[in-house]
Task: inverse folding
């Protein structure tokens, strides 16, 4: 369930980002139009923008914005077609609409309720109807949105009552290829699948009709779904016999009539497409060679899916390249083939340069400044502190630091959670602060900066800090740990408890942070993108939460090691040194194997044993990797070293996504998969 | 629609028919909906994943993608069988992901009339019943129709529980 919501959130974020840019362009255009109201290209541009916004909003069921943009579109259409001139009064209406859309966008970005639009819609409607004959004709020209298929009355009633119950009903139109075999079976399949992701209110043809084989190449399904029907759309689209799937919001008849628009917006995106085409064709004729004022031409909007695809392809290249180097090495070993070998070797080297530049380019394209998620926090923090009755100075540093889009998405929720905690649990009430000799205003600093090949995001507050004793008590009370075990924990270990599932220091969940997600979810989110989280606190002085995030995601350098028959990849960044066992002395500390590394005693743990959760099992290893586990030095015994390679990190699917100490998988040069270990958590 | 009509509808071949992929596991024949099967491949090198749930045999490389492979024998408590050339990996789609399932052999694609499928409760008892969509009778043979999504989501839940338990145990 979380997934679909995230997906919707992603779509929404995308839409909002786009709307932001579009509105900026529109405002510019409107200001220009004020000077030259005859400029057909400008009118066309604003029309196009409104159409785009309307389409995007309709897909996500954002009705208010659809109404406003649709109204603007109507007016612009009248002007465009020469039915009426662009008067100052009309321009003012357009400005109002843009202002409202800006408000609306902000509201959605901050997850607030959207501003009311009734007055504006009425203003627009009045403005649009000032030219009666044409206006109405134009309104009618927007064809009625209800689907081409006739809906039986009882179905309409069902749908309308669902809408009246406050449900969002979506119309999913599924078109099959004309040569699809067994249409009724396909229809049935799709209906059955859809029931898994959405509530099917009705369908045309109905289930009964399908069973009687009364089907056509179009299946219209009315569903209610929280994700705006996107999951359903994807599901239906995955069927190979389906040629096209569209999803639109359904509007009840009663509502549609009273809203003041002829025809609901649901059908517009479809019905208007040809119209837009026509206007595009017509445009060059009327398009004066006006200089373009926006710099839209310099950038393109790219689907992240495409970037991911490209990244995967680069990944494949890297694998091929690695294989090529291995072949070269083999060839060079024998004198007859040495010449060819060295040629292949230099080819591989070239391929490496090319592929890493390609990779870098794609990674660049995926980067976004952290500002894109940070920008909503000042408002959030202001609201939070007001609600908690606390005084707060919130500061953001390094907002232009860039991060991979996926990483940004992954830290968004965690940051919200951490920031909420800092206000709710961290910063004290003004009186308490003064009593503790602090200034009454608390301070929270959110910063982002590069550190080596990582981006470090910190949330620092000067609040009361986390009381390790209280954390222990709470964990004992919640049954997460026994009383005796709690006694033995160091302060640092006690702090680790806050990452345990089911833990929350606040005895009663407050309105602010008690949202059911805990630090365990925060940590899991970060680990998904190879990030790390660390909490440091000083009682009475404040808390510092540090997120360490990788700059790049998909490719890493790793040490390939052998353990029994299996090959494992260990990120080179987490290995400090590789030691041959014959060079070191292994002793024992309290009966457990340990090595002396330049005067420091380090526990020696068998990788094979660790993976079987039997740390101290046989130690007949040939090599030891000097690394850290839970931030303590550790030597990991392995049976063999294969070498260091660039590997492509692949996901292992849902079932294997949460295994402790397992970071993912990769495909080795010879084609076998291998597991990537997260040595820091392997023990 | 009258009751009589409804009966006629159920019998009509185009109305209530399902296509399934039938495969054997041990002595039994199972079936899954054809729509969920993406492809069937010979068994290839399966690399075990440490700490994976017991029924996960490991991962394979499917044209550059890493795909987990499950052993239903383990899930159903049958004895293991290794290195059998008739064994296949059936790739099924669960949610948005591909998952491999080891089966002893894939026999055929069958069309089954909906009304030849009986509810599992009438034939089997026990935990397995949750994964069973129904039992289809084809001639004298009984085919157990499996709900793979159910098997996997159930298994996943167990994994998560195990992971949480492990995380909760603080040394």
Result:
């Amino acid at each position: 369930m979380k997934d679909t919501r995230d997906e919707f959130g992603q779509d929404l974020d995308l839409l909002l980002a786009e709307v932001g840019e579009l509105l900026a362009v529109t405002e510019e255009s409107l200001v220009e139009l004020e000077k030259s109201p005859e400029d057909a290209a400008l009118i066309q541009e604003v029309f196009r923008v409104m159409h785009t916004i309307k389409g995007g909003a309709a897909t996500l069921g954002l009705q208010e914005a659809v109404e406003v943009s649709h109204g603007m579109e109507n007016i612009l259409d009248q002007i465009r077609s020469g039915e009426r001139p662009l008067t100052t009064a009309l321009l003012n209406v357009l400005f109002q609409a843009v202002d409202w859309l800006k408000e609306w966008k902000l509201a959605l970005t901050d997850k607030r309720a959207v501003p009311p639009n009734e007055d504006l819609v009425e203003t627009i409607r009045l403005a649009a109807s000032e030219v009666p004959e044409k206006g109405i004709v134009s309104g009618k020209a927007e064809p009625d949105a209800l689907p081409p298929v006739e809906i039986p009355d009882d179905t309409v009633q069902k749908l309308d009552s669902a809408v009246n119950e406050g449900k969002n009903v979506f119309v999913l139109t599924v078109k099959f290829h004309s040569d699809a075999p067994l249409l009724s079976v396909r229809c049935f399949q799709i209906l059955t699948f859809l029931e898994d992701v959405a509530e099917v209110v009705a369908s045309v043809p109905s289930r009964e009709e399908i069973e009687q084989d009364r089907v056509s190449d179009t299946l219209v399904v009315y569903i209610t779904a929280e994700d705006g029907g996107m999951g359903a759309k994807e599901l239906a689209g995955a069927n190979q016999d389906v040629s096209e799937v569209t999803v639109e919001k359904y509007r009840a008849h009663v509502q549609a009539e009273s809203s003041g628009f002829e025809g609901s917006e649901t059908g517009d995106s479809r019905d208007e497409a040809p119209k837009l085409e026509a206007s595009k064709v017509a445009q060059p004729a009327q398009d004066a060679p006006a200089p373009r004022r926006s710099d839209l031409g310099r950038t393109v909007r790219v689907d992240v899916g495409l970037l991911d695809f490209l990244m995967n392809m680069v990944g494949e290249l890297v694998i091929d390249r690695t294989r090529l180097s291995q072949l070269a090495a083999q060839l060079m070993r024998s004198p007859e083939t040495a010449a060819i070998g060295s040629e292949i070797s230099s080819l591989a080297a070239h391929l490496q340069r090319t592929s890493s530049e390609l990779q870098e380019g794609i990674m660049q394209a995926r980067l976004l400044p952290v500002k894109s998620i940070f920008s909503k926090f000042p408002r959030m923090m202001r609201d939070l502190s007001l609600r908690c009755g606390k005084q707060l100075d919130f500061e953001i540093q390094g907002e232009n630091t860039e991060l991979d889009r996926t990483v940004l998405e992954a830290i968004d929720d965690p940051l919200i959670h951490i920031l909420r905690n800092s206000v709710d649990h961290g910063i004290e009430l003004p009186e308490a602060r003064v009593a503790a000799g602090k200034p009454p205003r608390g301070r929270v600093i959110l910063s982002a900066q590069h550190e080596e090949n990582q981006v470090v995001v910190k949330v620092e507050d000067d609040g009361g800090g986390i009381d390790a004793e209280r954390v222990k008590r709470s964990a004992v009370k919640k049954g997460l740990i026994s009383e005796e075990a709690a006694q033995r924990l160091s302060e640092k270990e006690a702090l680790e408890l806050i990452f345990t599932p089911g833990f929350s220091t606040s005895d009663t969940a407050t309105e602010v942070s008690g949202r059911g997600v805990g630090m365990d979810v925060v940590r899991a989110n970060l680990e998904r993108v190879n990030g790390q989280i660390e909490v440091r606190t000083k009682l009475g002085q404040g808390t510092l939460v540090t997120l360490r995030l990788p700059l790049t995601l998909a490719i890493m350098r790793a040490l390939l090691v052998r353990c029994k028959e299996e090959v494992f990849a260990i990120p080179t960044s987490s290995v400090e040194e590789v030691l041959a066992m014959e060079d070191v002395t292994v002793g024992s500390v309290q009966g457990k194997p340990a090595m002396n590394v330049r005067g420091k005693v380090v526990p020696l743990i068998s990788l094979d044993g660790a993976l079987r959760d039997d740390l101290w099992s046989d130690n007949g290893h040939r090599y030891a990797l000097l690394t850290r586990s839970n931030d303590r030095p550790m030597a990991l015994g392995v049976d063999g070293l294969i070498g260091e390679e660039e590997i492509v990190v692949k996901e292992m699917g849902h079932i294997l996504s949460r295994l402790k100490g397992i970071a993912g998988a990769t495909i080795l040069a010879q084609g076998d998969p291998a597991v990537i270990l997260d040595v820091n958590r392997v023990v | 629609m009258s009751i009589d009509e409804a009966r006629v509808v159920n019998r009509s071949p185009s109305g209530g028919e399902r296509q399934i992929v039938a495969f054997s596991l041990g002595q039994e024949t199972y079936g899954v909906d054809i729509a969920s099967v993406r492809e069937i491949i010979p068994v290839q090198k399966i690399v075990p994943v440490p700490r994976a749930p017991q029924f996960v045999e490991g991962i394979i490389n499917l044209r550059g993608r890493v795909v987990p492979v499950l052993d239903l024998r383990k899930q159903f408590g049958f004895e293991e069988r290794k290195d059998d050339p008739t064994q296949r990996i059936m790739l099924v789609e669960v949610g948005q992901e591909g998952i491999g399932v080891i089966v002893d052999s894939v026999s055929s694609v069958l069309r089954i009339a909906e009304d030849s499928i009986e509810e599992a409760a009438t034939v089997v008892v026990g935990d397995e019943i949750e994964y069973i969509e129904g039992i289809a009778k084809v001639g004298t043979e009984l085919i157990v129709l499996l709900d793979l999504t159910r098997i996997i989501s159930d298994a996943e839940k167990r994994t998560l529980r195990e992971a949480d338990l492990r995380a909760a145990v603080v040394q």
About this structure: The two ends of chain B are 66 Å apart (CA to CA). The CA atoms of residues 76 and 113 of chain B lie 27 Å apart.
